[in-house]
Fold:
Amino acid sequence: MEEIALAERETQIYRKGESTFEITCNKDSLAGAVSQRACVFCGSRVVLYPIADALHLVHGPIGCAVYTWDIRGALSSGPELHRLSFSTDLQERDVIFGGEKKLKSALHELIERHSPKAAFVYSTCIVGIIGDDLEAVCRRVTEAKGIPVIPVQSEGFKGNKRSGYKAACNAMFRLIGTGDTSGISKYSINILGDFNLAGEIWMVREYFRRMGIEVVANITGDGRIGDICRAHGASLNVVQCSGATMDLANMMEEKYGTPSIRVSYFGIEDMSEALYDVARFFKEPDIMERTRQLIQEEVQKIYPELQKYKKALTGKKAAIYVGGSFKAFSLVKAFRLIGMDVVMVGSQTGTTEDYQELEAITDPGTIIVDDSNPLELTSFLKEKEVDVFVGGVKERPIAYKLGVGFCDHNHERKEALAGFTGMLNFAREVYSSVMSPVWKFVPRNTKGNDQTFKR
Amino acid sequence: MSKMPNYISTTNACKLCKPLGASLAFRGMEGTVPYLHGSQGCATYMRRYIISHYNEPIDIASSSLSEKHAIYGGAANLKMGLTNVTKKYQPQMIGIATTCLTETIGDDVPMIVKEYKRETEAANRPLLVHVSTPSYSGTHMEGFHAAVAAAVDQLAQSPAVTNDTVNLLPGFVSSADYRYLQEIMDDFGIKTTMLPDLSTTMDGPALLEYEKIPGGGTPLEAIRQMGGAKATVEFGRTLGKTRTGATVLEQKSGMRSHRLGLPMGISETDRFFACLETLSGRTTPAKYADERGRLVDAYVDAHKYVFGKKAIIYGEEDMVVGLTSWLAEIGVTPILCATGGRSGHFAEAIAAVTDGVLVEQPKAYEGMDFFDIAEEAETLGPDLLVGHSKGYPLARKLNIPLIRVGFPIHDRIGGQRIIHLGYRGAQQLFDLVVNSLIEKKQNDSPVGYSYM
Structure:
C-alpha cells in the first residue's frame, strides 16, 4: 500500500495504542503538502472580525480583503460594520513607492464615512516587505481623528495562524485599560474566545445572567470597542478557544491581575463544567445554587430528544478535523454522548499538551493528526469507514466526494452549536447527515456493483 | 470611463486576485496540480473561496513561505514543494503561479524552475508551467488568461504541418458551459482543443476512490498540438492587447484567431455559430436551430414582463458585456454595467454590443466596488441586479431580485451547473429572469393571483 503521508510528516500522525505517544506539532507547514492551514493574517482577521463597531481595514492587495469579506457567521446585536470588507487595494505603483499615503487617505475617508469607535489596520505579506510604517500612520490618524487606530502586525508569512492570534491579542491589549470601570459588579467576567456564531454568545450570556454574573466584554463575539476598553474591570476571564485568546488573558493577568479559566461551551459535559467552574470561582452559594438549577433545567429540556438521536447513531463512526484542538476535546465527548465512536481526530494548530489530552480521552486505534492535508484525510476516512466528518469548508467536499456525511463546525457555520441548545442542534446536524437516504446511492455503499459509478 | 467618483479606499470589492484565476485555469488542464509560490494563506483562502462555489475538492499546493524565506528568497521552498507535490500527487504537470509576496521579494521563478530542471531527472518530473501573477495588478481574470497563455506558450509546439483541429479558448465560464461548448463543437464535427476545460475537474461524479487529481481537463498532448491547429476561437471583447492563448499562437505560428464576445443571448451566439459554420463548412445542426427557435418563441411569450425593466449588471468584464448584450436584446434596460477590472476596453465593448439596440447607452464603469455600485443604484432605481452572489446585500437592501450568474455563487447550490452560453444558456437565464420578475410582482401584489 502506498504510504499515506510524506516521510517528513510521519511524526505528525499518531495511532493510539501502536506505540508510546509522540507527535510533532507547532511547526511550519511543509512546502507542497497542501496544508489546510491559513496564515498569520487569517488568524488576526478571524479573532478581531466580530468586533462590530470597529473599522477593519486590510492594508494590502485586494485578495486578502475579498477572501475574508463577511465570511464568519458572527452576529451583532447592533452595528454591522464588521461585515464590510475594506481594503487599500494596493497597486503596483504603491508597491514601488510605498503605501503609507494611500493608507492614511483611506483611513481618513473611511473613518469620516462610518464614524467607527476604533480602527484596526491589518498588515499583509506585501506590507511587511515594502516596509510601510503602520505604527506611524496609525498614530497620526489617531491624533487627527480622535479614535484608537491600531496596527495589527499580521504579515501572512511571519508564522502561522497562531502568530496571527497573538497579533490580534496584542492589538486588543492596547485598548484594555483605557475605559472607565466604575459600577462593575464583583461577580463579573469577560467572555474570551466566543465569536457569536449564529448567536452563541447570546445563549452563553443568558446563562451567566441567570447565574447572577455580569459580563463586561465579549471578546470578540458581538464585541464592542467600549466594552473591551473596560475589560480590565472584570473579576475573571473565561476563555474558550484558548488558542486564539489565551495570550490576551495572560497579558491581562500580568498587568491587571485578572485570573482566567479555560472552558468550552460545546457538549453538555463541557458546557456544564464551564458554568460550574465560573460559579466555583466566585465562591458564592447563591450563584452555585442558581447554576445547579440552570443546568438541571437546560439538560432536562434537551435530554429526551437527544436520546432519540443517540438510539439512531450508536455505533456510527466520526472523524474530526478542526482548527484548534481544544474544540476537538469537546467534540470527542459530544460524540460519545450520542453514542458515536471517534476514530480520527486532528487539528491545524494543536500543541503537544493538546495532543496529549486527546490521546488520553480517545479510544485505542484512534488516529491523531497535526496539520493534515486532503490526501491524508481521505485515506483516514476510507480506512476507518467514517460515517460523519466534522470540519470546515475545506474539509466538506473531501467528505462528500467519498460519500461520507459531514457536519460544519468552523467559523462560517450558521448553526448554533454551543450551549445546551447547541448540543441538540449538533446532534440534529449529525443525525440529518448520517441518516440521510442519499448514501445508499454513493459508490462507497454500492461497492462498485454499479460499474458506471466507478471511474 | 473610470470609476466615478474616485474613492481611495475599496469597500466590498467586485474582483478577486490574480493567482485565483491562474489556479482555476490550471485546474482545467489534465493531471495538473495548481501551485502557488507564496505564503500558505493564499492557497488556503482561494481553496475555500472556490470550494464554496463548486462544492468540489480543489487542492492548491503552496510553497508555504515563512519569514526567513521572505528575506533570503523562496527558491529552496519552491523546489522542495515541487518535489513533494510530485511525490504525493504524481501529477502530469504542475502549474506554478506567483503571488504578491514572491513577486515583491524578487524571486525569479523561471530561473528557479530552470535550476530545478537541471537538478532533477526529467523522467521523474512532471511538466512545469509557470506564470507571473502578482496580486497587486489586475484581477482574477488577468490571472486566468495569463495562465492559459503561459500553458500555450510553454507547451505548444510549432509543427510544420497543420492539423484539422480548432482551438477554443472560452475564458472563465461554468463547468456546464464548458460541457455545452464541447457538445456544440462535437455536433459541428469540429475536432477541438478546448483550453481550459473545467467541465469534469470542477463538477465530477461521486467516487469510490478519491482522485488525487480529478479526471478530465484539457489533455496535455492536445495543448502541445495547439500550434498546429487550423484556427483559434477566443472569447473576450475586453481583452485588447492582453497576452492570451490566441495571441501567443498568432505570434508562434501565425495562426488565425477569431476573437468573439462570450456567446450570451441570440446576437452574440449567432456570431459564434456563424464562425463555426465557416470553420466546419457545415450549416448549424438542427438541434441548435431548434434551441434557437424555442428561445425566440420564449422571448415572444414573455417579452412584456421584462420590457423596460432596469438592470444593474456587475462582475467580470466579459461576463458583464455578454449579459448586457443579452439583456438589451430581450428588452431589459441595462442602466449600469460595473466591473472591478480595469482593462480599459469595457465601455467600448458595452457600446459595441448595445449600439443600435438601446436608445441610450448604459453607464459602463471600470474599477467599481460594491460601495460605488450601491451609491449609483440609489439614483438609478434598478428593478433587478444581475451578477454573482456578492451583490446579494444590495439586492436585499433594494428589495429587488438578484439573478445569480458567473462566479462566485456562494449562497446557492449548483453554480457550476448554470449554463450561461449559447441558445440553451440564454433560454435558462431568460426563464429565470422572467420568473423572478413575475414572482416579485406576485409577492408584492395585494391580490396574489395564481396565474399570470
